């Protein structure tokens, strides 16, 4: 209510991520849905419906990490980790200064971008922890992709679509690619690597040179943000 976010805007996050998942052969839920499907699904915890929530998935993900000189022995297109930021917040949401702001996400993002010597405007593609549709919107704002209260409007206007100005979760996100818990953060890193290498197939973000992933736990009591860049 404070920011005027609508139920339809929340639903559009799910619709977008399911649409992206159709282009991802590794996605759990490769099924297109509509705003009406989301709004008509059963209530889990008002205002969230069943289709606002990610599944718990079986899955695995892996990365090969190496110094640049070794990485070039395996590929001529290495993705470089430019910066990593980690931060924590109070576990109890009721004890936080503002329950609508993910303080750990803001601080982890600030640290990662500072270490990378980049700004959020330098980022071409983003993978966020959208266990619930509201999280994609709030995280996008707290990362600085959009001003507070504008994340829902951005989704509505198509800015977060694969072809939009701020592509978010081209993989389908946790919502539709799936949420294999311990493997989720690595899966985000794999997707960003594919995007930077131009290997994401039909969901490829055009001219993606830098990416960012944000993974959280305990409703953002802990957050890790990683900034990536092409290494060639």
Question: Mind explaining what this structure looks like?
Answer:
The protein has a single domain (7-230), classed as Thiolase/Chalcone synthase (Peroxisomal Thiolase, Chain A, domain 1, 3-Layer(aba) Sandwich), CATH 3.40.47.10. 31% of the residues lie in helices and 15% in strands. The chain is built from eight helices and six strands; from the N terminus they run ααββαβαβααααββ. Strands 3-6-5-4 form a four-stranded mixed β-sheet. Strands 1-2 form a two-stranded antiparallel ribbon. Helix 1 packs across helix 5. The model has no long low-confidence stretch (mean pLDDT 98).
| Relative helix content | 25-40%
Largest sheet: 4 strands, mixed
How does CATH name the architecture?
3-Layer(aba) Sandwich
Number of helices: 8
Element pattern in H and E: HHEEHEHEHHHHEE
Instruction: Kindly report the name of the CATH homologous superfamily.
Output: Thiolase/Chalcone synthase
The number of distinct structural domains comes to 1
Cα gyration radius (Å)? 17 Å
Identify the overall geometry: globular
According to CATH, what is the class?
A: Alpha Beta
CATH topology: Peroxisomal Thiolase, Chain A, domain 1
* Cα separation of the termini: 46 Å
- Secondary structure category: alpha+beta
Regions with pLDDT < 50 over 5+ consecutive residues? none
Strand order of the largest sheet: 3-6-5-4
Mean pLDDT, to the nearest integer, reads 98
* Total count of strands: 6
């Amino acid at each position: 209510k404070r920011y005027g976010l609508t139920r339809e805007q929340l639903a559009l996050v799910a619709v977008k991520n399911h649409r992206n998942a159709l282009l991802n052969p590794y996605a759990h839920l490769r099924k297109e849905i509509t705003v009406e499907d989301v709004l008509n699904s059963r209530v889990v915890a008002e205002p969230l419906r069943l289709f606002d929530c990610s599944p718990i998935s079986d899955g695995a993900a892996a990365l090969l990490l190496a110094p640049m000189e070794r990485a070039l022995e395996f590929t001529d297109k290495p993705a470089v980790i430019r910066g990593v930021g980690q931060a924590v917040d109070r576990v109890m949401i009721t004890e936080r200064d503002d329950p609508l702001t993910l303080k750990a996400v803001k601080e982890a993002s600030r640290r990662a971008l500072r270490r990378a010597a980049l700004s959020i405007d330098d980022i071409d593609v983003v993978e966020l922890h959208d266990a619930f549709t509201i999280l994609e919107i709030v995280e996008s704002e707290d990362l600085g992709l959009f001003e507070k209260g504008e994340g829902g409007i951005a989704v509505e206007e198509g800015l977060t679509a694969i072809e939009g100005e701020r592509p978010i979760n081209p993989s389908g996100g946790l919502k539709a690619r799936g949420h294999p818990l311990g493997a989720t953060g690595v899966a985000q890193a794999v997707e960003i690597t594919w995007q930077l290498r131009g290997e994401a197939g039909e969901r490829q973000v055009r001219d993606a040179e830098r990416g960012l992933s944000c993974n959280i736990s305990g409703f953002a009591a802990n957050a890790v943000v990683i900034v990536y860049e092409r290494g060639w």
